[in-house]
Amino acid sequence: MAAGSTKQDLSGIYGRESGSPLYQWHRRLQTRLGNAAVLWMARRWQRLPERLARRLGSGLGAAMRTISPRHARIVMTNLRLAFGGEKTEQELAAIAKACYRHLGLCLVEFIRLPAMTREEIRSIAELRGREHIEAALERGRGVILLTGHVGNWEIAGCRIAAEGYPVNVIARAQRDTDITEYVQRTREALAMRVLHRSAAVRGSLRALRDNEILGILLDQNAGDDGVFVDFFGHLASTAPGAAAFALKTGAAVLPTFGFRKPDAAHIIEVGEPVPLVNTGDRERDIHENTAQYTKIIEERIRARPEQWFWLHKRWKARPSEERAAPTP
Fold this sequence. Notes:
- The protein is of the alpha/beta class and about 325 residues long.
- About 50% of the residues lie in helices and about 15% in strands.
- The strands form two sheets. The chain has a seven-stranded mixed sheet with strand order 1-9-8-2-5-3-4, sandwiched between helices. It has a two-stranded antiparallel sheet with strand order 6-7.
- Helix 2 crosses helix 4 (about 90-110) and helix 10 (about 240-250) crosses helix 11.
- It is globular and about 55 Å long.
- The model is unreliable at about 1-5 (pLDDT under 50).
């Protein structure tokens, strides 16, 4: 167990999903309608004026909270796990409300991005720490941008690509093929190369060996086979890819996070390289590096909790000792 993590058994923390055909049908219908709505907006809202887009984004966020009580429960469960001993229920509810507004804005911003020029993208997002990218590329071993679903992560990627850097991103296919293709087209239109999970390892290693940039979102549940490290005081399954790639290639790992300012502009901050733990014990090194990467992400979330994606079941997968424990 990671240092600082609690011994609380979180198996079943999100409750059990109903296996009834009616419930499953309702979930599938809700997902299809949501995806159809996103594609409808993508065709019609690309050139919306910024002020109108912000109003619509805020309204969408509020609607998302009402339409899916299931996700609203996940948000509050996650917030209680992360801040239950630090914040009141009223404070957590306020963060949840602000989170939905933020995500609605993120969606509308993503829809509008393909219609924007590089100059317009630069104007809405200030890039800080470019010197760290330059210094890392001078080493010739590639760059890993360590990031998460904080701020508008899509704007962070395209803002760096707007400077002419070769940016590669690993993508997870969505259940809806049309949504997967839409997201890929949008990212490619913004000068980012998409690496699908089926070929992500080979493509990522090639990009780093070609001294390119690889963006990795490291804040989602990685399932039973992930590396379990401390995240807000609880063990969370985390993908080992960033650590494995850094150990294999020597690429610099640069913490890179964007945040929305009150005036709707964005700041993208690229930090100094994270020191690589490389003792020669591969399993231990992957665990130690993944742990420190996750701690960096936690620190950024704590700074702007309303700007993280709390809708995801981050603590769903559990370590083997919890899965094997008898049910009382």
